[in-house]
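Q: C-alpha cells for this one, please.
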Amino acid sequence: MPLIPLEDNFDDVINKAQRGLQISNEDLAKRAEVSAKDLAAVKAGEPIYAVIRRVARHLRLNPTTLEAHARQSWYPEIPVFPRGFAMFNTPFGDMTVNAYLVWDPKSHEAVAFDTGASVGDMLSIIEADRLRLRYILLTHNHPDHVADLHNLTAAHPDAEIWAHRDEPVSHPRIQYFDEGVHFHVGSLAIRTLLTAGHSPGQTTFFVKGLSWPLAVIGDSLFASSVGGSPTHYREQLANNRRKVFTLPKDTVLAPGHGPLTTLAQEKQHNPVFC
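A: Here is the predicted structure, written as C-alpha cells:
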C-alpha cells in the first residue's frame, strides 16, 4: 500500500503560522532580516534553508524541525493495530481525507469517526466482519469530513450520530454533546476533548482499549503540521498543547488528513509544537 503523503509542505506550515499570527510579509521580512524576494520564494516552496530558519524563529516554529521538513528527511513511523482499527483515505477534490472505524473484536460493536468522501470501503469491512455500528462520531462539520454521512446512516439506521454542539450538522438524527462526554463500545471507552480552533467545536476522541491509546484528532493537527485557522490559531495551539500533548506518550494520532503518527513523534518532529 503506498504511503499517504504528509498533508502539508514546509511552506504550508510557514503560511499557516504567519496567517494565524497575523504578521504581514513586510513585517516578517523585517523581523527575520531577510529580503522580500527570499521570503516570497520560501513561502512559494523554495527551500532556502537559511531563510527558513530565520523566519521560523519569528513564527514560533522550531527552526531545526522546520528545516528537516523542508529537506523531506522525516516521515512518521506508522503504528500497527493487529485488530479493531481501520483507516480510510478517500479523494475529495484536489486532496484526500481520512475516516476511521474502530471496533471491539469480542462484541463486534463498532464506531465510525467521520465519513470522508466515500464510505464504500468502510461499509465493506462492517459487513465482512459482521460488525454492529453503534455510533458515528464527527470531529467537525466541514464538508470533506461529512461528505458521505447520508450513505453511512442509510446503511446503518440504528447508529447514533453525534457531534459537538458547536458543529451543527444537517441530518434529522444528529445529536449533540458537550466536552467530557464518554461513549462505550464493547470494551472500548471513548472520551471527548474539545480542541477548538480549526473550527468552533473541533473535537478529539480519545479511545482506550485497543492495542495502543488512540486519539482521533480531525484537523486539530497533522503529522509535522497543524490544521489551519486564520482567526483562532492561538486558541488552536493552546488546546492542542493542553489536551492532546498531555495524553499518554504512546498515543497514536489519527488526523483528518495525511498519515497516522504518534504523540511521541510529533513532540520530536512537529515544528509547531516541539
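A few notes: Residues 10-21 form the longest helix (12 residues). Residues 10-70 form a domain with the 434 Repressor (Amino-terminal Domain) fold (CATH 1.10.260.40).
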